[in-house]
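Note to self: user wants both folds in one dump. Writing first protein now.
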Amino acid sequence: MPNIQSKIASQNWESITESMHKNGFAILANILSNKESQALKMNYSNPDLYRKTVVMKRYRFGLGEYKYFNYPLPDLIQNIRTSIYSKLAPIANSWMKVLNINTVFPLTHQELLKQCHDNNQLKATVLILKYGKSGFNTLHQDLYGDVYFPMQIVLFLNEPDEDFTGGEFVLTQQTPRAQSKAIVLKPKKGDILIFTTNFRPVKGTKGYYRVNMKHGVSEIHSGQRYTLGIIFHDALS
């Protein structure tokens, strides 16, 4: 069986890059094995892995629960985080260039984390989320500090319409001087979704302009839904 780095490297990154430019998201199909997905879900109950638990209702974030991992991250998560970052950094830099934003992201994840740590952003931001019936996640952005990377990923650990119903992944796109557009996605178990953290460039008649985006999860109708979110930058708290 190919390891996770080779699975990621063998993806059609030209097509993924095109999708990120065009849509602000892309899906990497069938990256995690059933065994890997099951192991991540089973580890939800292991307190040694996590630094913080958030009950979403308490903060009006939605209805569900999530846990932030502590460092060091499990090898599988660390390898995915490092491997995918190196593929996304050139895309992020092209976005900054066309939007005339004076930011250049390093090409290795280790260098990005150094920038975070120099800014006192020291906390791991990788998190695992659990929803039951009626659970949902309000529209939001995951920034965590002044240093942030404009893309992130979600690993889907359950099969939709088998393990749960409802619970679609929702993106909203706010075009300037226009109504918001909703994008509803339904990745399968083992898929990885790449999407923009807070904005993406769109080409207009007078050049590129910035379109803001948020993400969330629609209401779960039945079953349990687990996902694992990987944000590439670290947090202040």
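First done. Writing the second protein, which came from a different request thread.
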Amino acid sequence: MEIILKEDIIGLGYKNDIVNVKNGYGRNYLIPTGKGVIASPAAKKQLAENLKQQAAKIAAKKAEAEKRAAQFDGVEVVIPAKVSATGVTYGSVNAAIVAEELAKKGLEVDRKIITMRDIKKVGTYEATIHFFKEVEVKLPVTVVAENQPEPKAEEVAETPAEAPVAEAEETPVAEEEAPAAE
């Protein structure tokens, strides 16, 4: 089913694009919510006429998007996250967290125009910020460990010496409780 989009939908297309979608997605979501209309021949003619009339506005929006994208040249986001001993984060780093970190740097971006996979490990990743149809910025995102786990070599050395004493003390208690439970 061909649909003319009435607004930008990340992952599908931009405003005034003609896209092919599954019938159910078009009929049950895009058309009822006003995010798209059926691309009939009459609607396509009207779209072409509107695009001719709005060419100057579209060029101005694109220039504004390019100006905003230029602000992100050389910007890198470093996000401290709590991690386990294996380097896996507790929770995940997503677009909302990246938008918050950018806001701390004075760069306001709506989290909805940032696309990335949820990050669950320490490392360097890439997020894409979609400003306009052909204006996108690749933003490096580095996740670092907030809490560096300390080596447990000392604890391992002490544990075998203490373990037999602890087991000897616990064993009689366990035997006393077992008959009472039966």
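Dump finished. Worth passing along: The first helix runs from residue 23 to 30.
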